[in-house]
Design goal:
Layout lengths: L6 H9 L3 H14 L4 E7 L8 E6 L6 H8 L6 H4 L20 H4 E9 L6 E7 L15 E5 L7 E9 L11 H9 L12 E5 L8 E2 L4 H4 L3 E7 L4 E8 L2 E10 L12 E7 L4 H11 L3 H11 L1 E6 L2 E3 L12 H7 L10 E7 L20 H24 L20 H11 L4 H65 L2 H28 L10 E5 H11 L1 H6 L2 E6 L6 E5 H23 L5 E10 L2 E8 L27 H9 L3 E5 L9 E6 L4 E2 L4
Parallel strand pairs: 1-7, 13-15, 17-19
Antiparallel strand pairs: 1-2, 2-6, 3-4, 3-6, 4-5, 7-8, 9-10, 9-12, 10-11, 12-15, 13-14, 16-18, 18-23, 19-20, 20-22, 21-22
Length: about 700
C-alpha cells in the first residue's frame, strides 16, 4: 500500500477541527518534550496581518535520528513504547499525528531543533503544497540540514510560513478563541508543574503575555470542589463568596451500594448569577460593564474535562452543553444553573479512569458506558452547589428581569425610561414609577409560576383522560378475541392440549383484568372528574394509590404498613385532591428510600389514618435519610428540589391542592426515622354519608 502525499494535509484538515485546536496540539508537543515554557508569537510588518506564526520551546529538542526516525513518521509509535517523557511527564500525544496540525495552520513549516546532547542542530523545510494529489508520500524529498544553531540553546522552534487565510484575506485563526483555548488548556488542579505558555499578538495586546484565565474567573460567588470516590461518596467543600459554608465528608450521592462506573474523579464547579443584581458587585470590583462581564463568562463557561493535566476538547467550549445543564435549567430555572452560569473542571486520568477512552480524532471521549456514567454523576455534584445557592439567593430574587410574551402588557420599562429621561431618576414621580414597575414585575412573576403550575396539572389530567378513554377499546377487543379463540380451540384441539392453551389464556385474562383495575383507579384522577366532590372511603383511596405503586414497591422491596380504622371512613370531597397528595408522598418516598438503602434493598413506609371531629389526618413516614432541618420548610417551595434533576413541584403542588381542606406539614416525631409528613383534612369535608 502506498499512501498519497495528500494524506498529510488530510490528517491536518480532517482530524483537527479548527486552527486553535491545531496550535494546542503543537503546544502539547512542547510539553511532551519536557519544556518549561512555550512561546506562541505572531510576527510580521503589519501587526494586524501577521505573516508568520512561531511556536518555540525550551524542551529537550531532537537529534537527527529523532527527526528522521520519529518526526518524519506519520503514526509513529515512539511515544507508545513509553508512557512518560524522560522528565517523567505523561505523554499527551501518543498517536503520532499531532505535529501535522501545522499543515492546517500554514502553507509551509521551517523547523529548527537542537538536542541537549548535541552541539549542532537540525533544520527542516516543509512546503505542504508539494504534498499534492499526484505524488506518493515516499516520492516527496524533504530538505534538512545539520548545522550550528547559535540562537538556540536547546529545544524546538516551529516557524509557520504564510498562515492560511479566509476568502476576505484575514487569518483563519481567531485570536480571542486561541487565547481562551490556551488559557483553559492546563488543568486548574495543579497537575501540570513548571510549564507556562506565552502568547504574543502585536495587534492585540489584551491577548498577549503569559496565558491565564481572566481574574474574574478566579473568584466566583459560588464554588464546590472535592473528589467523588468510586463508591459514590463525595468529599469536599462548598463556598459562597469565598467563605466555606458546608464541609462534606463521604456524602452519599447515589443509591446506597451504587458504584461510579467511570471511576472516581475530582471536580470543581464555579458559578455566577448573571442578572444585574448578581453581577453589579463584580462590575465595581473589576471596573467592567455588565455586557463585558457576561461576555467573559460566555468565553469561559461550560464544563471542561481535564485528562492527565490537559483539557479534552471540545468539552467546556462555548455552546458545548454535554451535561444538558440548559435543558434542566429550563425545567427549573429557579433552582438549576444553566451552562452559561458555570465554569467547571473535571479531572480524570488514564490510570484511574481507564474506561474513559480518547477518540481517534483527538477530540472528545468515546461515548461508552463509562462516559454515560460521567454524565450521571457530575450533575449530582453540581446539585449540591445549586442547593446552597438557593439558600442564599431566595426564589423571589430570580428572573426579576424576565417577562414572557404573554405578560408583555404589564411591562412598564418604556414608561420608566421615559420618566427618567424627562424628569430625571431622582424625581419623586420617576421613583414612584420605578417602584410600581418592580411591584408589577413581582406580581407577574408570581402569576407566571401559578400559570405554569396550572398548565402542568391540567396537562397531566388531560393525559390521564386520554389514557382512560383510549385504553378501554383495545382491552375490550382483546377480551372478545380471547373468547373467540377459546371457541376455536375447543373445536379443534384435544382436551389435554386445550387445558395447556387455556392456562396461557387465563394468564392473559388476568393481565387484562389488572389493566381494567388500573383504569378504574385512574378514573377519579382524570381532568373531567378531579374537581368533583364525590362520596368515597378514605381507606379505599389509600389502598388504591398503593396499588398504583404496587410494582415499583415490589421491585425495590419496600414494605408499606397501614394503620387504619376497621370500619370504612366515608367522606364527601374531591377524591383526586387526596389522591394527588398521596401519590406525591409515595413517589418521593420510593425515590429517597432507593437512594438511602440501595436499588432493590428495601425500606419501610408507614401510613396512619386518624379520624378527627371535622375530618381526618394521614401521617406518612419512611425510614429513609429524611430531610435536612434547614430544608424542611423550603421543601414546599416551588422549584426547590434536592432530587437529581428534580423539577421541585411535587410537595408544592400537594400543599396547594390540600389548602382548601387543611394543611400539609413536615413531622419529625414519626415512628420511622426518615421523612415524615402529616396531611390534615378538616374543612369542606362531608362526613359519614352513605357511599
Amino acid at each position: 500500500m502506498r499512501p498519497r502525499a495528500r494524506i498529510i494535509s488530510l490528517i491536518g484538515d480532517e482530524l483537527i477541527s479548527d486552527e486553535a485546536v491545531a496550535v494546542v496540539e503543537l503546544v502539547k508537543n512542547a510539553y511532551d518534550a519536557d519544556a518549561s515554557r512555550v512561546a506562541v508569537r505572531f510576527e510580521g510588518k503589519d501587526p494586524f496581518k501577521p505573516e508568520t506564526l512561531v511556536i518555540s520551546d525550551d524542551g529537550t529538542g531532537m537529534t537527527l535520528d529523532a527527526v528522521l526516525g520519529g518526526w518524519f513518521e506519520p503514526g509513529t509509535i515512539t511515544k507508545r513504547k513509553k508512557s512518560k517523557s524522560p522528565g517523567g511527564r505523561l505523554y499527551q500525544g501518543a498517536k503520532g499525528v499531532g505535529r501535522f496540525a501545522a499543515a492546517r495552520l500554514a502553507e509551509g513549516l521551517f523547523l529548527e531543533t537542537k538536542s541537549k546532547k548535541e552541539t549542532d542542530g537540525v533544520t527542516v523545510l516543509l512546503e505542504w503544497g508539494r504534498f499534492d494529489e499526484s505524488s506518493y508520500l515516499d516520492e516527496i524529498e524533504i530538505q534538512y540540514e545539520v548545522r550550528p544553531l547559535p540562537g538556540l540553546v536547546h529545544g524546538t522552534t516551529l516557524t509557520l510560513l504564510n498562515p492560511r487565510q479566509k476568502e476576505d484575506g484575514s487569518l483563519r485563526i481567531d485570536f480571542e478563541t486561541l487565547h481562551n483555548r490556551l488559557s483553559r488548556l492546563i488543568s486548574p488542579f495543579g497537575d501540570v508543574k513548571d510549564f507556562n505558555i506565552d502568547l504574543t499578538i502585536p495587534g492585540h495586546p489584551e491577548f498577549s503575555g503569559e496565558v491565564n484565565a481572566h481574574e474574574l474567573i478566579a473568584k466566583p460567588p459560588y464554588k464546590i470542589e472535592g473528589s467523588l470516590a468510586a463508591d459514590g461518596t463525595f468529599t469536599g467543600n462548598i463556598a459562597v463568596n469565598g467563605v466555606v459554608v458546608k464541609n462534606l465528608q463521604r456524602h452519599q450521592l447515589g443509591d446506597k451500594g451504587a458504584t461510579v462506573g467511570c471511576g472516581g474523579f475530582t471536580v470543581e464547579f464555579r458559578a455566577w448569577d448573571r442578572d444585574r443584581k448578581g453581577l453589579s458587585p463584580l462590575m465595581l470590583k473589576h471596573n467592567l460593564g455588565l455586557q463585558e462581564i457576561r461576555q467573559i463568562l460566555d468565553n469561559y463557561c461550560g464544563v471542561s474535562i481535564y485528562r492527565d493535566g490537559f483539557r479534552v476538547h471540545p468539552y467546556g467550549a462555548p455552546g458545548n452543553d454535554w451535561l444538558r445543564l440548559d435543558y434542566w435549567s429550563r425545567q427549573n430555572p429557579t433552582m438549576r444553573l444553566a451552562n452559561n452560569q458555570v465554569v467547571a473542571a473535571i479531572r480524570s486520568s488514564r490510570e484511574s479512569n481507564p474506561e474513559l477512552i480518547d477518540r481517534t480524532t483527538r477530540e472528545g471521549l468515546v461515548h461508552n458506558p463509562a462516559y454515560e456514567q460521567l454524565t450521571v454523576w457530575a450533575p449530582r455534584i453540581l446539585a449540591l452547589l445549586e442547593e446552597e445557592r438557593y439558600k442564599v439567593r431566595p426564589r423571589e430574587e430570580t428572573q426579576a428581569e424576565e417577562i414572557h410574551t404573554l405578560f408583555e402588557a404589564f411591562d412598564l420599562s418604556p414608561v420608566v425610561e421615559e420618566a427618567d429621561r424627562q424628569l430625571g431618576k431622582q424625581h419623586p414621580v420617576s421613583k414612584l414609577v420605578r417602584k410600581s414597575d418592580g411591584t408589577i414585575r413581582e406580581g407577574v412573576r408570581r402569576l407566571q409560576e401559578h400559570y405554569s403550575r396550572l398548565l402542568m396539572t391540567a396537562g397531566i389530567g388531560q393525559m390521564v383522560d386520554l389514557v382512560i378513554h383510549e385504553i378501554g377499546a383495545p382491552v375490550g377487543r382483546a377480551n372478545r378475541e380471547i373468547a373467540h379463540l377459546e371457541k376455536i380451540l375447543r373445536k379443534q384441539f384435544p382436551k389435554t392440549k386445550l387445558e395447556e392453551a387455556e392456562g396461557s389464556l387465563n394468564l392473559i385474562k388476568g393481565w387484562l383484568e389488572q389493566i381494567v383495575a388500573l383504569r378504574a383507579r385512574l378514573d377519579p384522577k382524570s381532568a373531567g372528574k378531579r374537581g368533583r366532590a364525590t362520596t368515597f372511603s378514605i381507606q379505599e383511596e389509600i389502598l388504591g394509590n398503593l396499588l398504583l405503586f404496587e410494582n415499583l414497591l415490589a421491585k425495590q422491596k419496600i414494605k408499606p404498613s397501614l394503620h387504619m380504622p376497621k370500619d370504612p371512613f366515608i367522606v364527601k370531597m374531591t377524591r383526586s385532591a387526596l389522591g394527588q397528595v398521596l401519590a406525591n408522598l409515595l413517589d418521593n418516598s420510593v425515590y429517597w428510600l432507593t437512594r438511602h438503602h440501595g436499588d432493590g434493598k428495601g425500606g419501610e413506609i408507614d401510613i396512619t389514618l386518624r379520624t378527627r371531629e371535622h375530618g381526618f389526618s394521614i401521617l406518612f413516614c419512611d425510614d429513609g435519610a429524611g430531610i435536612d432541618e434547614a430544608n424542611r420548610e423550603r421543601a414546599f417551595d416551588p422549584y426547590f428540589s434536592t432530587k437529581e434533576n428534580g423539577i421541585g413541584l411535587g410537595l408544592y403542588v400537594a400543599r396547594q391542592v390540600i389548602e382548601p381542606y387543611g394543611k400539609l406539614i413536615y413531622r419529625d416525631d414519626c415512628r420511622l426515622s426518615g421523612a415524615g409528613f402529616e396531611a390534615t383534612f378538616e374543612k369542606q369535608v362531608g362526613l359519614n354519608e352513605a357511599p
